[in-house]
Amino acid sequence: xxxxxxxxxxxxxxxxxxxxxxxxxxxxxxxxxxxxxxxxxxxxxxxxxxxxxxxxxxxxxxxxxxxxxxxxxxxxxxxxxxxxxxxxxxxxxxxxxxxxxxxxxxxxxxxxxxxxxxxxxxxxxxxxxxxxxxxxxxxxxxxx
Length: 144
Description:
Layout: E1 2-8, H1 22-41, E2 46-51, E3 54-56, E4 65-75, E5 79-88, E6 94-105, H2 120-136
Antiparallel strand pairs: 1-4, 2-6, 3-6, 4-5, 5-6
């Protein structure tokens, strides 16, 4: 699982118990998972088809930094299924888990499902290549 982005829990993200509002967490999960799926499938014409049950395990409080772990679970002809874990950056405690989020690629003109041409093996290979290139690209900080 790759933890790809972070958010700061602000006062307007809180519920009556002064912890992260579940609806806000769902909004963030849908957005982060969509960005991940767009990058994986290399298309911007995707829609959320299904989000499985969300399991809330621990609260996030104002000032906490939460991070989003994302992984491709499966790939269909026109769909991709993603798993998303939201955890506290400092404590590593899981805040919530969305085990299956399904996105469908659409034809931009007809808005009907369209094959994306990817499979799980090619996406895993692409991810490994990205990780390798990031490890090889070390910025020159000697002039700083």
